[in-house]
Amino acid sequence: MRYRAEQFHAAETLGAAPLVAFLLVVCLAVLLYLLFGAGDADDTTDVYVAGRSLRPVRNALALTGDYISVITLLSVTGLVALAAHDGMAMAVSGVAALGVLLLLAQPLRNVGRFTLGDTWNERFPGTRARVAGTVATLCFCLPLMVVQLVVAGAAVSFLLGLSDLGAAAQLCTALIGGIMICASSLNGMRGNSILQAIKTVVLLLAMAVLAGQVLDKFGWSPNRLIDAAGRGSAGTDEVGPLHHGGASGTLSQLSAQITVVLGAGVAPHILMRLKASERGDSARRTVKYTIGLVTVFSGLAVLMGLGAAALVGAQSIAAADPEGLAAVPLLALQLAADGSSGGAILALTVSMIFLTSLTVVASLTLSSAASLAHDIYAPTAGRKRSMTSEIWAMRWSSGAVGALAVVLAVALQGKSVTFLSYFAVGAAAAAIFPALVLALFWPGYTRTGMLWSVYGGLGCCVVLQLFGPAVSGTPASILPGVDFAWFPLETTGLVSIPAGFLLGWVASRASASPPTRAGHRQLERQALTANSRP
Fold first, then answer.
1. For residues 491-516, average pLDDT
2. Model confidence over 6-52: pLDDT tens digits?
3. CB 49 within 8 A of CB 282
4. Residue 64 has pLDDT above 80, yes or no
5. 52-61, 183-192, 264-273, 390-399, range with the lowest pLDDT
6. How crowded is residue 308: how many other Cβ atoms within 10 Å of its Cβ?
7. Residues in contact with 527: Cβ distance below 8 Å, sequence separation at least 6, in sequence order
8. Cα(305)–Cα(410) distance, integer angstroms
9. Cα–Cα–Cα angle for 160, 164, 169, nearest 5°?
10. Taking Cα atoms as reference points, which of 451, 446, 449, 431 lies closest to residue 497?
């Protein structure tokens, strides 16, 4: 994000309240992580899925926290500020993704014990299914961890009014990453669930306060707010390719919405969260409650986006970041400058962004480490494996994955990294979603077909993303000075999702190994049994 000098000086003059509040939140987060981390027993079921004991309301609060990442918060608000209708459509797509998850919640909870590899291993026993699950998990989690840390580091350092934005952003990124490594290494699903629930409550309350401040500026009249937002967004030219008009822009929007609808709900850390439910029907109720909470979030994000367009102006937001990720920090700064409680508003926004990034990155790290320990280490350890050794492997994996994400995030600080979030969700939609649906519901699916769905979908995403406008060819690209893009869309779902299904179908038909129909019938009975406890 490219914050201008006058914007930084405005943040700097609002006093030390944001910095003090930030340090207090950091200390509280460390204390809570240490406190809750000590409560996880040395049992894999307890560490990975909280002993399958989470009730629907508590698990819904935690699932909402997992689902709403800092990139979701900033991008939805920014999309509304830069391109109102497109942003609202993206907010609806986020809720619709949970509708897809609702249809799959019961079988996904009942099939497999902990990880994505476990789920595929139920249908196709063997190491190849587990390795494919680990590869898909890392391809989703690691890019999303990096972009969360980069964006949160930049936003927090700006709102704190730190003098050297580049070095400060790297320092904030490293700080968030360090706490995240401790959190995921010491904590399991039970402690993480408590912290995610706290984060959800804090996030929604903070957004409600900011949205209320926006409405108060316009006499609590939505019509006046919408009119002002229309005037504030007039004449905006510097926006990302996703917001451009014409055929390419329409296809980009369609591709992005399809990708979010089919990919966001089957993220590996979301699937692990479902497996923490008491029963299959409890998982369905958990998702139902989550849909309500995410709908509230989406409504507040739309109000904040309209407020950013009205009070800050779309041109100023696009000048800071063409994808609109600066909308929330700039809105908070504007509200702080106009009111008497400026320091409190900035402190609230800093805390909201910090907690959102920290908890989601910790969940992503836990999911990655669980997959490495349970699907890679445990099968190779053989008779020497014990629950304690597997948990230690998970903790070491947390440190390794977290350290890699922090190093990459610090190195990429100041660069456009939103394409990593496009790739992560696209990978889930093109590789995980087809393989899950076909494995659960098609008797003719084979192990070869599953492997082709996963690796073929991932390969398609990599190639199309690399040669798309998110990497080169536009001012918002990560390499704006060169142009080797031949694929016109920022998100790949319009092509890669059908490719994942098609590759799985063709490979299954052409496979020499027969489909495991008896295994599918057993899997189907297990998936639809509400009280199933694999």
1. 85
2. 444 444 444 555 556 666 666 666 666 656 655 555 678 888 888 88
3. no
4. yes
5. 183-192
6. 33
7. 106, 107, 110, 111, 280, 440
8. 28
9. 60
10. 431
Instruction: Look at 531 and 489; give whichever has higher pLDDT.
Output: 489
pLDDT score recorded for residue 132: 94
Three-state SS string across 404-437, please? HHHHHHHHHCCCCCHHHHHHHHHHHHHHHHHHHH
Rounded CA-CA distance 424/361 in Å is 14
Distance CA 224, CA 310 (A): 10
Q: What are phi and psi of 456, to 5 degrees?
A: -70, -45
The full DSSP string for 214-280 is: HHHHTTT-HHHHHHHHHHHTTT-----GGG--HHHHHHHHHHHHHHHHHHGGG-HHHHHHHTTBSSH
User: Which is nearest to 438 in space by CA: 457, 424, 422, 463?
Assistant: 457
Contacts of 351 (CB under 8 A, 6+ apart): 21, 22, 25, 202, 206
Q: Give 3-state DSSP helix, strand, coil % of the chain, rounded to 5.
A: 80, 0, 20
**Residue 189 CB burial class (10 angstroms; 0-12, 13-18, ≥19):** buried
pLDDT in tens, 403-429: 999 899 888 887 778 888 889 999 999
What's the CA gap between 159 and 172, in Å, rounded?
A: 11
In this structure, the number of other CB atoms found within 10 A of the CB of residue 327 comes to 33
Three-state secondary-structure class, residue 68: coil
DSSP state letters, 429-462: IIIIHHHHHHHHH-TT--HHHHHHHHHHHHHHHH
Residues 6+ apart with CB under 8 A from 245: none
Determine the Cα–Cα distance for residues 505 and 450; give it in Å rounded to an integer: 9
pLDDT in tens, 235-289: 554 444 444 444 456 788 888 899 999 999 999 999 999 999 988 889 999 999 9
Burial (Cβ within 10 Å: 0-12, 13-18, ≥19) of residue 404: middle
Q: What six digits make up the tokens of 119?
A: 């789920």
The token duo for 436 is 């899950």
Structure tokens at 135: 């590869």
- DSSP 8-state secondary structure symbol assigned to residue 52: G
The per-residue pLDDT for 291 is 96
pLDDT digits (tens, 9 = 90+) for 426-480: 999 999 999 999 998 888 888 999 999 999 999 999 999 888 887 877 766 777 7
Closest to 47 in 3D by CA, of 396, 367, 376? 367
Burial of 219 (0-12, 13-18, 19+ CB in 10 A): exposed
